Automatic annotation (TrEMBL):
This is Rieske domain-containing protein. It comes from the Bacteria. It comes from Candidatus Pandoraea novymonadis. Residues 7-113 form the Rieske domain. InterPro entries: Rieske_2Fe-2S, Rieske_2Fe-2S_sf. Coiled coil: none annotated. Keywords: 2Fe-2S, Iron, Iron-sulfur, Metal-binding.
Length: 137
């Protein structure tokens, strides 16, 4: 039997499309780990808040994960960018790497919707994380 836990993160209206994200914490292998959710093209996505380049959180100001056009997520430290809906890195630096995607669901509609993180004992990720081995010269 799979053990499932569901954690409420925020209200749906707290996530503006391509706007500020909401930070929260999850436990991975016994360690409290930062994570975040964002809304992009109407859907909600969540990731571990850790860059694939170095072990840094992405947001340059709390909750600011999108670059200025609102098309991509960006790491504030060295500017690596990611697709908001997949977590795939699309810059040369760290190309082929992925943010660690979380299982996020939105239940309800309009002002009554709520965002949840669904965690199973088989893992928190629905995509296999691929870390980058590039370093800056
Ligand atoms: S730590 Fe994120 S781009 Fe370098």
């Amino acid at each position: 039997m799979i053990d499932i836990s569901v954690v409420q993160i925020c209200r749906g209206v707290d996530l503006v499309d391509r706007g500020r994200g909401v930070r929260f914490e999850i436990e991975i292998d016994g360690h409290v780990t930062p994570a975040f959710v964002i809304r992009y093209d109407g859907a909600v996505f969540g990731y571990v808040n850790q860059c694939v380049h170095m072990s840094m959180e992405l947001d340059w100001q709390e909750g600011e994960f999108f670059e200025k056009t609102g098309q991509y997520l960006i790491c504030a430290t060295h500017g690596v960018i990611f697709e908001p809906n997949t977590g795939r890195c699309v810059t040369d630096l760290c190309s082929g790497s992925w943010l660690r995607k979380l299982n996020i669901v939105e239940r309800g509609t309009g002002a009554d919707s709520v965002i949840f993180f669904v965690q199973t004992d088989t893992g928190t990720s629905i995509d296999v994380p691929v870390s980058c081995d590039h370093s800056l010269s």
